[in-house]
Design a protein that fits this description.
448 residues; alpha+beta; five-stranded antiparallel beta sheet
């Protein structure tokens, strides 16, 4: 029971952090740098008290009363319609709808256009009421000329730009909702299912089968999963999916790979992805075994004795060459803390939307040679060179994704709450703090 509770705790830590990142991303996308306040829709919905972001293609906000009941919905025309320009700039208009998705009214929220023109439009109630009582779909398909929507006298370009942006904004979201891609499996998805099946056979199959096919399988992983498909699990992938959504329908094979990477070690204790699917892990192991092979050949030439066979299960136990350079215990502890530090960096970047490409902190994007950045190539090269001297050097001293997967891995009934679990709780606290940084701004503006 204690082991089960501990596993549920670790799953909850990952889930809570993912939810906090997602929550910030949705609010950043919808509210931007100028959060909309509930008081700005009170003219249309008198009991409006708070706003809740809608995580859908509508990219709007649900309007709530004090009891949390939905009163209506509000969307802004900007920044989705930045290309619709009036006389001297764009205008951001609010579109307020009732619970039945009928428009209650329009209101100018902000504008870069000429102030006098915007003022003339805001006091022309006839122009702003042209959309009242139209449904979302009806307004999206509205013919402006047929509906008698004409420019406000003296502010024609600005007012018609508002009219066009209202129609375009509603149509964009309506079309995006209708254009949801159905689930489809392409050749690379079927290929990934085959990789997962073979990996399962090797991970859970008989040892003799694993030894016989291990090297050819590792080479196949590097060639296909790494260089051809480029389907590697990484921090950038997890953060991108958490912020933008999981591509269930467009990349089902990759989604299944990520699910297996998390669920298999969580339920069975097997480091499934790291040991049996990761191309960079396979490349490191082949690099180390190449060193052993060269060392055995040199020893045989120098001593005249036949070369010894490697220990397949424990390559670091080879007597020649030495398994690792002499490093002090403090240096080793410091290096082993590097993956945790990179996880903290990833969390901060994800929650604060810092413009740092997370692909550069890991080597995995280096396998997509045509688009790999310098930082990624350097990390990959350093990791492989280090693995020539220390078995799986990058996995042990540099991989934040491996650290995440290792954190959720089941360790049997003898597992106990450890320093790593306390550190995970501290990460949750940091995520809550950074999430609150964004939420508190909105609450303060709304007077809560």
């Amino acid at each position: 029971m204690k082991s089960l509770v501990l596993q549920l705790y670790r799953f909850a830590v990952v889930a809570v952090i993912a939810w906090l990142i997602r929550d910030v991303a949705v609010r950043q996308r919808i509210q931007g740098e100028s959060p909309l306040m509930a008081s700005e829709v009170v003219a249309f919905l008198p009991t409006a008290h708070a706003l809740r972001p809608d995580d859908s293609a509508r990219d709007g906000l649900f309007v709530l009363d004090r009891a949390g009941r939905e009163l209506g919905y509000v969307v802004r025309t900007q920044p989705r319609c930045r290309d619709i320009i009036g006389y001297a700039g764009v205008t951001n208009a609010l579109i307020v709808l009732d619970p039945n998705w009928k428009i209650l009214g329009l209101q100018i929220y902000a504008s870069e256009d000429t102030t006098s023109y915007v003022h003339d439009i805001s006091i022309d109630r006839r122009f702003l009421k042209k959309w009242n009582a139209l449904t979302w779909d009806a307004a999206a398909d509205l013919g402006l000329k047929a509906a008698g929507i004409e420019g406000v006298s003296g502010a024609t370009m600005t007012s018609m730009a508002i009219a066009q942006s209202v129609k375009a904004r509603l149509r964009l979201s309506r079309d995006e909702l209708a254009a949801r891609v159905p689930l489809r499996f392409a050749w690379r998805d079927y290929a990934m299912l085959l990789v997962l099946a073979v990996a399962a056979l090797i991970a859970f199959g008989k040892p003799e089968r694993r030894h016989r096919w291990k090297r050819p399988y590792q080479i196949a992983l590097i060639v296909y999963v790494g260089f051809i498909a480029g389907d590697l699990i990484a921090q950038k992938l997890f953060v991108g999916w958490t912020r933008a959504g999981i591509p269930w329908t467009t990349a089902p094979g990759l989604v299944l790979l990520a699910a297996a990477a998390l669920i298999v070690p969580w339920t069975t204790g097997k480091p499934f992805y790291c040991h049996h699917i990761c191309p960079h892990g396979a490349a490191q192991e082949l690099t180390w075994n190449f060193r052993l092979m060269v060392g055995r050949a040199l020893r045989a030439r120098l001593t005249g004795s036949p070369p010894t066979e490697p220990d397949e299960e424990h390559p670091s136990r080879q007597k020649y060459p030495a398994p690792a350079p002499a490093l002090s215990a403090s240096v080793i502890r410091g290096l082993e803390n590097l993956p945790a530090g990179l996880i903290v960096l990833t969390l901060v970047v994800a929650l604060l939307a810092i413009p740092l490409d997370l692909a550069g902190i890991e080597p995995f994007a280096a396998y997509i040679v045509r688009s790999a950045g310098i930082a990624t190539l350097v990390v990959a090269a350093v990791g492989l060179i280090a693995s020539f001297f220390v078995p799986q050097a990058y996995c042990r001293f540099g991989c934040p994704t491996g650290a995440l997967l290792n954190f959720v891995r089941h360790r049997g009934t003898t597992d106990r709450f450890s320093r790593r679990d306390f550190a995970a709780l501290a990460l949750v606290a940091l995520a809550v703090l950074l999430n609150w940084k964004h939420l508190s701004v909105i609450f303060w503006l709304q007077g809560l």
